[in-house]
Write a structure and sequence with these properties.
globular, five-stranded antiparallel β-sheet, binds beta-D-mannopyranose
Length: about 325
């Protein structure tokens, strides 16, 4: 049954979850947190799949309708074993990809999990068949990196989530070549009196709307029973996206259904991407549930924007 809870502005698809390990053709522990893109009229998911050793790899799924996906037989990216700079820094696997299309190239920012902590890495593909690593693009600890789809004031831009002094906030950085990043600014901080009081991180690619950029983010609250991961949304200024115009005071999606409550990690909804449909209204949000399955929900982009302006921020 789809949830009818009043305050989840994201409507869950009644067929959730859309992918579980039953759908993965190779042996694995779990599937969750997929990046998404549209390519030649098809919906593409780049799935985070945890293999039997406990390290994550990426597998590819395709769909004609955005709800029913076929998963390819083998992973398309696994932790680098070749003698390159990536090998040392992907020793513990690759996680949480996020795809942004820039001028026909699909860039994938993902978490490389190293013995020194998690950091950001960049790969790219033009056809979802050949994947090429580009560079390691941060120091640890950093996660939840995602590129803007266009240059801003002549520079590539990205959101990310460095952890510094125990603080896990969302930052923005700029680059001329997608490899060297700087001019970093803090964009959005945790709110100690809200549902996002412990950690926040960008979830979806920033999506262009009138006068700004909307993006989905995840917020975490620590409780006596462990962390609860929820989703929110925020709007950033068009020309200076380090400025937050508005931000949802309450979550847009909280773990409520059984598959969001119970799994490898309980009480988690965690997204790595959303797609705005061609009507410019419906946003499909793909999200991992309890680190155990992949789900989809929809929201009207205008309602989402309005929702961000309600209440205190
Ligand atoms: C975060 C990331 C996500 C995961 C979430 C909940 O730190 O590792 O991949 O879904 O924790 O376990």
């Amino acid at each position: 049954m789809a949830s009818r809870v009043k305050y989840d502005i994201i409507q869950r698809w009644e067929g959730n979850p859309i992918l579980t390990i039953e759908d993965i053709p190779f042996p694995c522990n779990t599937v969750f947190n997929a990046a998404c893109a549209k390519y030649k009229g098809q919906y593409i998911l780049l799935l985070r799949v945890e293999d039997l050793t406990g390290r994550s790899v990426f597998a590819l799924a395709r769909s004609d309708d955005g709800y029913h996906f076929e998963v390819e037989d083998e992973p398309v990216m696994t932790a680098c074993v070749e003698d390159s700079c990536f090998k040392e820094y992907e020793r513990k696997g690759i996680e949480d990809p996020r795809i942004t299309e820039i001028d026909g190239v699909y860039y994938i920012v993902y978490t490389a999990v190293s013995s020194y902590g998690p950091l950001l890495a960049l790969a790219k593909t033009e056809d979802f068949e050949k994947f090429e690593r580009v560079a390691l693009i941060s120091e640890p600890e950093n996660k939840d990196g995602v590129l803007f789809p266009v240059k801003i004031n002549g520079k590539y831009a990205r959101l990310d989530r460095p952890v510094a002094g125990g603080l896990a906030n969302i930052w923005i950085s700029y680059s001329d070549d997608l490899i060297t990043w700087g001019n970093s600014r803090c964009v959005m901080t945790i709110r100690d009196d809200h549902w996002d009081s412990w950690r926040i991180g960008a979830s979806s690619q920033p999506i262009k709307i009138d006068g700004g950029w909307i993006f989905i983010y995840h917020g975490v609250k620590q409780t006596a029973g462990g962390p609860i991961y929820r989703l929110g949304a925020a709007v950033l200024d068009e020309d200076d996206p380090s400025k937050v115009k508005c931000r949802s005071a309450i979550p847009i999606l909280s773990p409520r259904e059984y598959y969001e409550r119970v799994g490898d990690v309980n009480n988690v909804v965690f997204s790595c991407g959303a797609l705005l449909e061609e009507d410019g209204k419906e946003l499909k949000i793909y999200y991992g549930a309890s680190d155990t399955s992949i789900c989809v929900g929809t929201a009207n982009i205008n309602e989402l924007m309005q929702f961000c302006t309600i209440g205190e921020h």
